[in-house]
Amino acid sequence: MASTAVPTGSATPPPSLTHQIAAVRVPRSSLRSELRAVKVVWQRELIRFTKDRLRIVTSLVQPFLFLFVLGTGLSRLASAGTHGVNLRTFVYPGVLCMAVMFIAIFSAASIVWDREFGFLREMMVAPVRRSSLVIGKCLGGATVAAFEGVILICLAGLVGVPYAPILLLEIFGLQLLVAFSITAFGVMAAARVRQMQSFMALTQMIILPMYFLSGALFPVSGLPQWLAILNRLDPLTYAVDPMRRAVFAHLKISAVARHLLDPGVTWWGWHLPGLFEAGVVALLGLLMLSIAIFEFSRIE
Amino acid sequence: MSAATSANGATATLAPEPSDSAAVVVRGLEKRYGEIEAVRGIDFDVERGEIFGFLGPNGAGKSTTISMLCTLVLPTGGYARVAGHDVAHDRDAVRRNIGLVFQDTTLDGYLSAEQNMRLHAELYGVPRELVGPRMQQVMEMVGLWERRKSAVNTFSGGMKRRLEIARGLMHSPRVLFLDEPTVGLDPQTRASIWAYISELKVAEDITIFLTTHYMDEAENCDRIAIMDKGKIVVLDTPEALKAAVGKDRVQIHTDDDGAAIAALERDFNIKAQMAEGAVTFGVPGGEQFVPRLFAELGVPIRSVSVSRPSLDDVFMLHTGSTIRDAEEDAATNQLRTMARAFGRR
Q1: Is residue B242 situated within a structural domain?
Q2: Residue B38 belongs to what domain range?
Q3: Which pTM was predicted?
Q4: Disulfide engineering: B334 pairs with which of A26, A270, B59, B82, CB 3.0-4.6 Å?
Q5: Could you tell me which chain B residue has the CA closest to the CA of A136?
Q6: Which residue of chain A comes nearest to B68, CA vs CA?
């Protein structure tokens, strides 16, 4: 015991310390403490998002351009080929996925900022598992992205998508899945990338091709072989397709139009069930989440 | 909770510990980055309730040592125990028992001060019913309770540092690590940070381990370890260290420094050296010596200064250079070390 230690009771505390010290004991790690960590990382994501109102607005610009400007403009060209189906209705699932993707990636990118501004260190030295931090982050990114998705879901009627409760639920579920998987992908990338510019370049390089190859803007049948192969390799294909099928199931259109615009994804002639496709997206998301956890557990 | 207490007597609340359970125990601690030995086998103990300072120029290995004690960097040799837990094998136990304030801010500037504090409390699993009272207590201690709703981005450097200290205390750590707590702050703020640190020691019954390269600040510590080139060169109380110097420091500017050094050696039997651009030497009773010096040196003297032994002299006595000179030497080395260290991560 150091000679400077204060004997209990006899010392007069400095005048500023008028109240009793609330002695805190940090408990050992438990499922409960890990869940608290997950929750607080998730909450931080939401707080930051709500403080950043500009981001909420700007992130809606791109989907609006695609949906209303490109969709409206091109529909004049494409009206012959869509057999009476509104082109905006056709691209709606793809645009929704894209909007969610960009928000999710942006959420994950904040890890790179956190690293640059030092906050990441505060989380990394906490006595919690890295997996709790990564899961909290992914859930946070997914929630924020899904919130933007909901705004677009509210606009569904404007582009000819009916407000059927089951359909809206299906769309919501699928976009949540996309949001989570893409955040997991972003977090995985952020584990390795140390600079914001590199991160943005990397994700642009991956996100845009993913978007264009996914069939968000075109039907996936009758493609040239090379494009068909790339399309089937693109994870986003398996999110856009079930969403479009859900939408088209609620449209009253001719069989020809349905066949042409909503052919469904096939593997060697086998039509993938929607649930299977959603499973593919979920599985990939979990895989990337695991890699992200592994990567973050290795750091320092 | 009770299991944790009995598993390790050191976690008992405020009861005095047996004298052998020091807050920090370090034996043969080493850290290499490839060929560079940042820390070369150091040994020391920090007693409970002490303010223990690590003093040395930048690049001496202070930050590497503190990083190892905080479980941020794995030692490559030896061991260290903090609050009774091994820093290499029981990282989470160490982390639960320490508070950290880094050189660079680790606050989330977008969040309010209170949100930063709450986030920390949640990450550290502070019992819910204690989060509010404890937060108020530590934030009042650093004078930021009234500003709790403000975004951290609006805070000055000194306020951020105070908030970080409060946050480091949020979970009542038994050892608080402060890595250069006052670097980059103006003198007034530095003084106020030190007032908080001293107050804290009394109020929290806490052990404080800090690094600094400000000599004057090191005087506030109960004991100091002076570190240079990866080793602890001397460890004692500031008073004992200064008393051991036994000489005043004399610095003179002359027309011919080389001749002056030679003359001092020949006529006065004093070994002088160049430090901070002046001929520097130690001599008992400096004020009495100066008149003799003017009369007998034979080299024109332009200015002279005599100072009581300071920690700088202690540093000079043990390392042969002033801390400022050592820093300039180390700066080039350090850049290289850092480049490698970062490349390695």
Answers
A1: no
A2: 24-236
A3: 0.79
A4: B59
A5: B123
A6: A300
